[in-house]
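Extended Data, panel c. Modelled sequence:
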Amino acid sequence: MAQTETLAQPPAAVAAVKAPFEPLSQRIRSHALRDPQGIALRIDSTEFTWAAFDHLLDRVAARLVARGIVRGDRIAAIGPNSPEYLLLFVGAVRAGACMVPLPTMTSLPSIVGMVNDAQARMVFAASAQHATMDEARTACASLREFVSFDIASPGWEGWASWLGEDTLAAPADVPVTEDDLFNIMYSSGTTGEPKGIVHSHGMRNEHLTRMGRFGIGPGTVTLISTPLYSNTTHACLLGSIGLGGKTVMMRKFDALGWLKLAQDERVTHTMLVPVQVQRILAHPDFERFDLSAFQWKLCTSAPLSPLIKRDAIDRWPGKMLEIYGHSEGGANCNLVLNDFPDKLHTVGRPIAGCVVKMIDEAGHELPRGQTGELVGRQPAMMVGYFMQPEKTEEVTWYDSDGERYYRSGDVGHFDEDGFVVLLDRTKDMIVSGGFNVYAVDIERVIEQHPDVAEVAVVGIPSEQWGETPLAFVVPRAGTHTLDAAALRTWANERLGKLQRISGVELRDALPRSEVGKILKRELRAPYAAPAADATPPAHQPAHSRSTV
């Protein structure tokens, strides 16, 4: 089909063409006029027609304007998925404001840093986050109002009271341009200090256009189960809303609940992260659910195991797309698993309009086929890190023609067909005996063991080698006989000499961010002090079950 052919084009055959700009707010307004009684959104048992959704957005926008919010002002929000959160997000965009969604699982200093960096004027929070934000109040001088997504409490105005009576006389649709700020996404990723990634209305418009390539629009049903602070969520959620599809949103993901919704709602599209894909496919009742309505499942945010990709092809109706990219923009690749079953070890080819290159440590462009850091450019790129031009410049690379690219921090190479093979994060690469060792090569061997559910490999200090690989393994459910020493022997018989792991640590679970990224820095942390090969430190995590 033409859609797949476009996604599969090699980088030399595409050109960067920006999509015509149509603001999200105007798109929603047109859906409300076209299909006022059609269902725009469902969460739990609550449904919103397009007319009701559009009207509520007007009320939110009008209330923000009445409270003094002007074009470009930042509004922070923190809490689990809810109708109120989504209405605020899109209503703020209609008012010309810039949304700043905050992660719910982060430290108080990080929250303070994000709010102060964004200079947010208001904060909306679910009651579970009131205590955290109360602690942050005195350190966040820019905050003027505190509104609860649910119930009122001391110092917090309740949502219903804040929204007020329905006396709207005229919509408050503030005109915006492609360059206006849409949102600031704060993410430390897996590397450290959070930075504010600024997305413009133009960038979000590009994302909407891309979702349209997968057929999202009137008549489709998109299931959203990732948190509203994540760019992964908004890439698909805003696509569904902006293109006129029905959106079903979960407050919190669980595999069984997801499967029930997918069947009952006849879901056609979804965006998932790898750990969700794994849990859905591993659910013992997976086969009894009717998922035949699926057209596309999209997966992003972290590498997806080739074994899980194969399982998805074999057992899950519809096509699956793996998306490689970053919230900053830059390098972006797609792999349609069903169309390229022999390329499951890759993340696909650069999408139409995206140019990807490899550079060495000195910033020199490398010939095709050589391993280096991925850099990329495309129409959908961030404005920069908010108020941090020096940080923006650190991730910027310019080619010989002066074209701007963003550095990915990922190491990889093109194969002979132009597909990108990812090897590691630059900061996660293991240097053992002076040679580069890539964790993914080791992980793909260990995950083939029948008793292994998940594995993550990191480098720990070694007196002999500088660094040595250590594997953290989650046994497959129902497995009680997995022995760390035996697994180490099994793996090393299959690995190259430089790849051999110095130890195995069995875990009940791997540390992850809320969108499923394995936090390798947490795995490395207890081993930061120099130590002999594979000798666990005295402060080994209490939840570790076994080690070698």
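DSSP finds 16 helices and 27 strands in the chain. This feature is highlighted in the accompanying rendering.
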